[in-house]
Design brief:
Helix content: 40-55%
CATH superfamily: Winged helix-like DNA-binding domain superfamily/Winged helix DNA-binding domain
Distance between the termini: 26 Å
Structural class: mainly alpha
Strand order of the largest sheet: 1-2
Low-confidence stretches: none
CATH topology: Arc Repressor Mutant, subunit A
Radius of gyration: 11 Å
Shape: globular
Strand content: 5-15%
Largest sheet: 2 strands, antiparallel
Amino acid sequence: MKQLTERQRLILDMIRDDNSVTIPEMSRKANVTERTIKRDITKLQELHLLKRDGGRKEGRWVTVTDALFGEK
């Protein structure tokens, strides 16, 4: 499997810390555009490392470790 970039690992870390973190918040913390964050999220979803549970406003991010171990 292709190794994750530092930014993709940062995104996963931010989501593990706060699964309701928004794309604009991630963008500011990573100092990149929202579009870049969206591309990385799409890649993480394609790799089955990240998914969205619920809707855009009331949903939350779920990482693969959350899904495997039932963590919140």
